Amino acid sequence: MTAEVQRYTLEQVEALELAPGAEHEDLEGWVPTLATDADLRDALEKALDYRGDVTFTLKSGEKIEAFIFDCKNGPTLAESWARYYTPAAPEKRKVSYADIARLEFTGKDRAAGKHWEDWVKKYNERKAAGEKDIALAPESLE
Amino acid sequence: MGTVAAYVLKKRFSGNKRYPLVLMLEPLFRCNLACAGCGKVQYPPHILKKQLTPEECFAAVEECGAPMVSLPGGEPLLHPRIVEIVNGLVARKKYVYLCTNALELKQRLPEFTPSKYLTFSVHLDGQREHHDFSVCREGTYDIAVEGIKEAVRRGFRVTTNATFFDGADPGSVRGFFDEVMDMGVEGIVLSPGYSYDKAPDQNRFMGRARVRRLFRAILSNRKPNWKFNMSPLFLEFLMGKRNYECTPWGSPAYNIFGWQRPCYLLQEGYAESFDELMNSTKWEEYGVSSGNPKCANCMVSCGYEPSAVIEGFGSLKGFWGMVRGTFSSYRDEQALKLLNDSAAPANLVQIEQPERALEETNV
Hints:
The structure holds 2 protein chains of 2 kinds. By secondary structure, chain A is α+β, with helices and mostly antiparallel strands. Chain A is 22% helix and 20% strand. Chain A has a 5-stranded antiparallel sheet with strand order 4-3-2-1-5. The longest helix of chain A has 13 residues, at 37-49. By secondary structure, chain B is of the alpha/beta class. Chain B contains 14 helices and 9 strands. Chain B has helices spanning 2-13, 45-48, 54-64, 82-91, 105-108, 128-134, 140-153, 170-182, 208-219, 232-238, 274-280, 301-314, 316-327, 333-341; strands spanning 22-25, 68-71, 95-100, 118-123, 157-164, 187-192, 253-255, 258-262, 267-271. Chain B has a 9-stranded mixed sheet, sandwiched between helices. The longest helix of chain B has 14 residues, at 140-153. Chains A and B meet through helix 1, strand 2 and helix 3 of A and helix 2, helix 9 and strand 9 of B.
């Protein structure tokens, strides 16, 4: 087991009253500075967790809009890769970390504003206004 | 049950230590509900439009070999070829659990054929107002109940499937059990919620101590007509009567991204094949004893019910525990006290009363 994941003793875990939830970062529009290899790895880690599309610019100049769903952190950038879907192509694609020059969090964050608290607030307001059949609707796919 | 028992024994006698019991086959992520805090459906439109083909589903099922296939999502009934997928799985003699919010169930039923291999597992999180509030749409409970009753009338196997979060009122949950059994369902499926790392909502999830108190209050002193479509040993685990390690490979998940690592709940990458998933995932980094904070609060059925099933069918002691659990009412005076102490009606809008209804017990 790696040191990074060993953070709780079994006794601590068994006594937990509330789950230690992760913080949802506001990343929409973020353009990380990629000065070092660690910067790039860190940014791609966040891109993997991001519930929206990102755009990466390759060192060749090509720009790719992508939803990243899998990353492999190898010993070097050349041995590290991200897998993604683009809005236009049906197949999975892969890019080497070593080929990425710039990364932008360009797509809408689909998790933003969808906290339980947001729903409770909306519900209370609409109920107070006398509304009936209160509902949240899925976003349009167009 | 016999099929699963034979499967577990066969694997055990062949010396196979890691094997799947239920394939979580997600044919799509698109849904017709927009439940706040859901960690499964928050994707860009081009991802929500993607779906597995029937051929991809069948290939995953063959590759995995599990005797049971759960079809969650997203909402599987939105898949344009879901009938073909279900029929193909039934033809392969897989026990299929089609998990649905039932918004479209009633009108889609004529397209399906009743079979001992097919069960509609209808998402109901509690009594009417609790369920509607939970799924963020008023009227949903009534539509789902109509679907359930019609499915039962047509001879389909039906279970209900509930997830309980912090603030769940145990008295109301027990009332809900009465209601669903009256609908004629075959059994109830339940699980505590899990704080998906990628879910937008991170504040409603119970830790293990709180889960055990809640389920002790709910599941003790059972009424004779309640039936659970789950391992009795897993229910005892939720009540704090047993300890299990997670069996993440017991319910592997396959979707448009591939084979999800390490389990249905965490998304730490994808393998291209089932063998790659089984052989290259660092399993020792997951589960409660690993200390991994992402696993710290998890007592969810997809990880722990396989552990219970394997014990139940893998040893005489476990089998006897299942038999005893099936017929026990779990008399428990302290649990009754817990239940009575929480008898005040719970506020639906839990965020305004974050303190839970159940109080600490030292028993």
